[in-house]
Specification:
Blueprint (H helix, E strand, L loop, with lengths): L8 E6 L3 H10 L9 E6 L1 H7 L1 H5 L9 E2 L4 E2 L2
Parallel strand pairs: 1-2
Antiparallel strand pairs: 3-4
């Protein structure tokens, strides 16, 4: 966070299966969060092409390859 009072938080989701992103968006729980979340979804190739992570100085919230239900990371 770069502000004590942000208007929203941008959250980038790197996905392989678009259906999971669609399911997340349809749940709409993120619409009532405060501050509101702006969900941005890209494939790894799209992120590399646009350089979103570098360009925005993004901070990773979840480790690469982590499976939240299993509590472990892939190597």
């Amino acid at each position: 966070m770069r502000s004590d009072r942000p208007n929203d938080l941008d959250v980038l989701i790197i996905y392989q299966d678009r259906a999971g992103v669609d399911e997340l968006r349809s749940a709409a729980w993120w619409e009532i969060s405060f501050p509101p979340l702006d969900i941005i979804a890209m494939t790894e190739d799209e992120e590399r092409h646009y350089g979103f992570i570098t360009g925005t100085n993004a901070v990773r919230l979840h480790p690469t390859g982590a499976n939240p239900s299993a509590g472990s990371t892939r190597t």
